[in-house]
Amino acid sequence: MINSMSTNTFSQMLGTRPARLPRAMDDSNAKIAGVCEGIGFRFQIDPLLLRVVFVGLSFTGIGPLLYLSLWWLMPRYPLETSPGQSLLQYPDAAKERASGLRAGGWIGLIVLGIGWAMFMLMMAAFALTAVVATGVLWWLLYLRHPEQPAGLELQARHEAAIPPHRKRWPWVTAVCVLLVGAGVATAVAQSSLFRSHYEYVDQASALESEYTSDFGSMNLDLQDLQPLKKSQTVVVQSRYGNAGVILPNKTNYTLECLDGDTPQCQSSTHEGKGALLKIKVGSGTFGHSWVE
Description:
- By secondary structure, this protein is of the alpha/beta class.
- The chain has two domains: about 1-190, no CATH class; about 195-290, no CATH class.
- It is built from eight helices and nine strands.
- It has helices at about 1-15, 35-45, 45-60, 65-75, 95, 100-145, 155-160, 170-190, and strands spanning about 195-200, 210-215, 220, 230-240, 245, 250-255, 270, 275-285, 290.
- The protein has a five-stranded mixed β-sheet with strand order 2-4-8-6-7, with no helix packed on it. A four-stranded parallel β-sheet has the order 1-3-5-9, with no helix packed on it.
- The longest helix is centred in the middle third of the chain and has 44 residues, at about 100-145.
- The protein is elongated and about 85 Å long.
- The chain starts with a helix and ends with a strand.
- The relative contact order is 0.10.
- The mean pLDDT is about 75.
């Protein structure tokens, strides 16, 4: 029963979702693609407030991605099919077939796929929170205004003509590019993805079997490591960066350079105290291994 109600509510939300109100419409004040204007008209919200929210989110990096996602999911008035929806069902109306929806759908899918994948790698928790918050906000707005305004009803859409695409001023494109660039740069700067990773270990009980990083350098400091009571192997590597080890002074160890011997890393053996420690160091693409 609950599942049936949930499915029915989601279907109604999807069927009454906002439509993008393009700039070419006489009564539209859209600035870019009509996303904020369409959401504001559908749920009776000031579009200016929505634009402020998107600009603020742009400085976290996710604003442009959310905007593009909504563009992909919202149909352009008076069409009934969105670019994303056109990939699942071919538009029936001739005017929808002529609008190039499927081309936009594929382009949007590729761009969004790459964008969300990168954002999940850099800030997974924040990205999931933003998606969930967007869904919850949409649901709350739907509960407040379950019925569409008169201008969005199917009959009104069927009778309306498709407004032509109006040429955008160069400054609009420049501002959009700057916002996207600023958002991506901010996300990268706030992420730990490209930062150096440093681990200091002086007790055998705290020594892990593997120290890895996807991006950035991986550095393991073992210079004060106490002798081991039993043999152990430790692997230090970075998939896309440098990997290095400061070798222990007291411990019995062997060093293996996984990338082959280089001036910065040469396989060796050290006679020390305690059980044998096997150290393996390897760097990934765009990096090198080093020891000291």
